[in-house]
Amino acid sequence: MIRNKRRVSKTSVSQTSSIDEKYALRALELAGLGIGLVSPGPLVGCVIADSAGNLVGEGTYVYDEVEHAEVRALRQAGESAKGGTAYVSLEPHAHTGRTKPCTKALYEAGIRRVVCPCEDPNPLVSGRGFAELEEMGLEVSKGLLREVAETLNEKFFHWHRAGRPFVHLKLATSIDGRIATKTGESKWITGAVARERGQALRHGNDAILVGVETILGDDPSLTDRSGLPRRRPLVRIVLDSTLRIDPKSKAVLSAREVPLVVFAGINASLEKRESLAAAGVEVIQFETERPELQKVLDELRLRDLQGILVEGGGKVAGSMIDERLVDKVSFFVAPKIIGGVDAVPAVGGNGIGKMTEAVGLESITCENVGDDFEITGYPVYRQSLGETV
Known about the structure:
Helices cover about 30% and strands about 25% of the residues. It has helices at about 10-15, 20-30, 70-75, 100-110, 130-135, 145-150, 155-160, 190-205, 210-220, 250-255, 270-280, 295-300, 315-320; strands at about 45-50, 55-60, 85-90, 115, 140, 165-175, 180, 205-210, 235-240, 260-265, 280-285, 305-310, 330-335, 345, 360-370, 370-380, 380-385, 385-389. The model is unreliable at about 1-15 (pLDDT under 50).
């Protein structure tokens, strides 16, 4: 099931029949089956209904299998597609890229009407697909479940609109906001169900980012252990100004099997860089004391990494928030009190001086995950009193 994290426009739904909403939701569910299998492309699903409103074809886009969801659904529908309706979760493309235009495929199959929630943000596609369908004489209905569709593809949309990867900050905290005790112990703050949900978040992203303190303190493998298929390995990113990372850590020892990229500062020694490189680690060194976060994201964009999951620790989380680079947050909160002024806070950084400067959240969801709670939302950054960005 797709959970709508944002409100659906009642107007767009009321202007369309209940069967349209049913099949539009099914197209979004089919699109969701591509999680882990489409990046750097978008999640796309398609449903074909015949002229009587019966479902006759379904398709899900998978990047490595090249064929688009529309083509798969049309093949399943066969002759039944003539005079029917195509429900597509994202605007069909009109250009020739890795595949032939889906607009042409829909037209040649005899589709009469296309129901689609939103335009594709890719400049090669945006608006052109809808325009070509209308020029061919097809009826195009836009806007149904738009917010649900854009949330499902939020990484892809952000990638094109903001020109950088989508950053999702995930933290497991006690109810008093600690991510580790005063001795540094953090296993386990949350329970097994919450940790399983965390693995699902890893599966839905292209890379996971942590600071070197997390490697030194927890020695995590930072891998996707969801058990679900993915077309590209989860890229592990470590911010480590002076290359303090332990050569015998799990992350380094597995670098030849799972990509590990370490961002260092100008003071990192050549000897350490060469040692890590010999172990299969890619080291990127900046000409500044610390890796600049915006430049880190710029580098990750060049690698076609759309979604970055930031998992730790408090210093990295604070710096990301300070620089307004976090696009979504998920706090897994355990009903435990750790206490202590020396316990590790969930979010470090510079922080704020006034409550009016606090980062708010919108489109919030709160769910029980086992004995814990998951609170997810989208940050609202305030420049000054009464002004948001």
